[in-house]
Amino acid sequence: MSPAPLARLADRDDDYARLGLKRGQVEPWEDGMRTSGGRGSYEWWYFDSHLDDGSSLVITFYTKWMLKPKGPEAPMISADLDRPGKPTLHIVVHAKPDEFSASQERCDVRLKDSYFRGDLHTYQIRLASDELTAEVELVGQVPSWRPATGCTYFGAHEEHLFAWMPAVPQGRVTATLTEKGAAPRTVTGVGYHDHNWGDVAMSKLMNHWYWGRAQAGPYSVIASYIWAEAAYGRTELPNFLLAKDGKVVADQSSKTRLVLEDLTTDAQSKKPVANRVIYEYTQDDQTRYRVIFQRSQTILDYELADMAKGFLHILARVARMDGAYLRFSGTVTVEKYVGGQLAERASDPGIWELMYLGHVE
Q1: pLDDT tens per residue, range 169-184
Q2: What is the pTM (predicted TM-score) of this model?
Q3: Count of domains in the chain?
Q4: Which of 24, 44, 306, 312 has the largest CB neighbor count within 10 A?
């Protein structure tokens, strides 16, 4: 008998019962605050969008820096506005614990004059900063989803947890953006929102991952592939959702295979990067899908140590922390094969990421 995996997606009946979840049904409280916010936990609510004018906007509300869950609550917002022909506008808003609140009943997160709120279908997000004010509405086009329970357990006794729940796998975005010294402008596009939380530093559990979401013609896709750290058997953890015209057509992650092509070394982070990230999903003997992320450019390239502030930054450097976060833009293509023949093909712009928390193997 083979040993039990040291990391697994919680998908058994007893997992659902213990977590109070229902198979195939996401409820509003699941997008509410799922941790205490105190020592030994972290949590964030993430939004990204690809806008019709060629811009991309990403906004994330955090209870604290995800690599320091042992620390006290230290709420913050991170935002990035990428505009064609201009440098990326990167914004960080820090707040005191008494300037932050989050409901346990639904997504209703407030930080100073900013908020992130919604009901699994319609969301309002406001970012208030000196450099940029953003007023965003996100309206879901694909139902909320999670891979099984959305929870992955790590350890021989399943002592650690990382959870992920895409509340809006794809939605229509209307955003009014006011940059410092400029008049407001309203743009539309396609967006996404997910919710993540855990109980130990992600760098202790995961070595690296690819993650991306996109719209390609009538298709919506969310795909990720996580490699656990050595202590958890280098377990590979795929997650995959493919919807067509708002209806899920493929979401059994165990049927997913990852192919990385045209590997190169990123000049800044020194991490290996695949110019083509391909998810292959075999639905049955006749039908399979390929989702191809073809990189055009790297739009963000951070060393994780530089995301820490003050004394934490010094500690990260002393510890030789070499984690990196890279965000890419390019073309995402969905191909459907029936009986070995290409039956459908659709392409559109997309955004995806590579996160390295550990050392390169």
Answers
A1: 999 999 999 999 999 9
A2: 0.86
A3: 2
A4: 44
Q: What is the pLDDT of residues 305-359, one digit of tens each?
A: 555 444 333 333 333 456 899 999 899 999 999 999 999 999 998 889 999 988 8
* Beta carbons within 10 angstroms of residue 260's beta carbon: 14
Of 200, 220, 245, which residue constitutes the final position of a domain?
200
Q: Residue 220: its pLDDT value, please?
A: 94
Residues 250 and 279 in one domain: yes
**Last-in-domain residue among 179, 200, 221:** 200
61 pLDDT exceeds 50?
yes
* pLDDT for position 201: 86
Q: Does 135 or 67 have the greater pLDDT score?
A: 135
Show the domain range for 111: 1-200
